């Protein structure tokens, strides 16, 4: 909990204090001020308005409510926006490897997330293998190999420019042959060429399905939280080209507008799986809606 609060410090600084003060002052402009605070944290105009209207209606039917009860109501309605995700780490290991495909545009923190995820699952007692299917950037392959070396986790890779689906094939094959619990595959994210990217991701998906038909597959879309509402358009694009099953929001340590997580979660009702709050290995945290909302509001 402390780690999340610390990671969200910039957003907390902006939101928590102002929230406390509007609830305590209770000016005639209370609802307007509250809406502005939410918008300033990038919760988005639509969600902010909805949430404030909801609070207004609730207060009408609960005229004796204290400031604290009102705030608790706000907290629970923000939390309810999130679609809950079933836990992974507690799911029983099966014979087939779980396959995690990381998608998203360059620079959002995909490769870093692959490394951090690998460390997290390894530390939870699973065997892990990494696949460097972002063959477009030589640096991405190199970066993933470094993570592998540092964590002592095998990394399947080919030459820059190789077919990403072939790397995915090798990765899943190796995972099955060695009885590995989890395969994490990094992909390229050239959204400039949508048709190509879609074909590439489809081909990778088909190969995983063919080589490991019983494997649970998670497609995690990695989004950079510091780009605010622009992350929404990346989300919209990616849901059109890939079966995104979960979100990872990175760099929340670097923004005071962490409310964007709420806007993103609400957009397509896709569960948020993890948040990134720094560059270090243990800076990827499992996402829990109520802890998140509490951390930014209080
Ligand atoms: P990719 O191109 O999507 O694979 O992105 P990278 O994994 O190379 O990450 C781009 C930069 O973002 C690197 O400098 C990372 O260290 C940094 N980064 C990734 N996640 C986080 C995070 O949660 N917080 C911060 N502050 N930096 C991050």
Automatic annotation (TrEMBL):
The membrane topology noted for this protein in its Swiss-Prot or TrEMBL record is: Peripheral membrane protein
Domain of life (superkingdom): Bacteria
UniProt GO molecular function: GTP binding; GTPase activity; signal recognition particle binding
Q: Name the catalysed reactions.
A: GTP + H2O = GDP + phosphate + H(+)
**Gene3D superfamilies given for it?**
P-loop containing nucleotide triphosphate hydrolases (3.40.50.300), Signal recognition particle SRP54, nucleotide-binding domain (1.20.120.140)
What are the recorded Gene Ontology BP terms?
Answer: cell division; SRP-dependent cotranslational protein targeting to membrane
Binding-site residues for GTP, renumbered to this chain: 104-111, 186-190, 250-253
| Key word ATP-binding present | no
Q: Which GO terms describe its cellular component?
A: cytoplasm; plasma membrane
| Location in the cell | Cell membrane; Cytoplasm
What family does the Swiss-Prot or TrEMBL record give for this protein? Belongs to the GTP-binding SRP family. FtsY subfamily.
Complex formation: Part of the signal recognition particle protein translocation system, which is composed of SRP and FtsY.
Q: Which NCBIfam families does the protein's record reference?
A: ftsY
Q: Specify the protein name.
A: Signal recognition particle receptor FtsY
Q: Which organism is it from?
A: Leptospirillum ferrodiazotrophum
Q: Give me the gene this protein comes from.
A: ftsY
């Amino acid at each position: 909990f402390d780690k999340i609060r610390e990671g969200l410090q910039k957003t907390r600084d902006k939101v928590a204090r102002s929230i406390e003060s509007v609830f305590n002052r209770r000016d005639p402009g209370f609802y307007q001020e509250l809406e502005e605070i939410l918008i300033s944290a990038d919760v988005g105009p639509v969600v902010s308005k909805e949430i404030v209207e909801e609070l207004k209606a609730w207060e009408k039917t609960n005229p004796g409510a204290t400031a604290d009860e009102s705030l608790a109501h706000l907290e629970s309605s923000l939390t309810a926006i999130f679609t809950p995700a079933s836990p992974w780490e507690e799911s029983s290991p099966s014979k087939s490897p779980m396959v995690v495909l990381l998608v998203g545009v360059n620079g959002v923190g995909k490769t870093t997330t692959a490394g951090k995820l690998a460390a997290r699952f390894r530390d939870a007692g699973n065997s892990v293998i990494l696949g460097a299917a972002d063959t477009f950037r030589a640096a991405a392959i190199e970066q993933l190999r470094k993570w592998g070396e540092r964590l002592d986790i095998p990394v399947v890779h080919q030459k820059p420019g190789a077919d990403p689906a072939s790397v995915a094939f090798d990765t899943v094959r190796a995972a099955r042959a060695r009885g590995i619990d989890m395969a994490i595959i990094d992909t390229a994210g050239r959204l400039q060429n949508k048709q190509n990217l879609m074909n590439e991701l489809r081909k990778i998906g088909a190969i995983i399905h063919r080589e490991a038909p019983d494997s649970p597959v998670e497609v995690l879309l990695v989004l950079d939280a510091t780009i605010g509402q622009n992350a929404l358009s990346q989300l919209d694009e990616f849901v059109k080209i890939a079966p995104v099953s979960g979100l990872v929001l990175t760099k929340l340590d670097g923004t005071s507008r962490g409310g964007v997580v709420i806007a993103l979660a609400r957009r397509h009702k896709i569960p948020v799986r993890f948040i990134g709050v720094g560059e270090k290995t243990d800076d990827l945290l499992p996402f829990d809606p109520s802890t998140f909302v509490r951390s930014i509001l209080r």
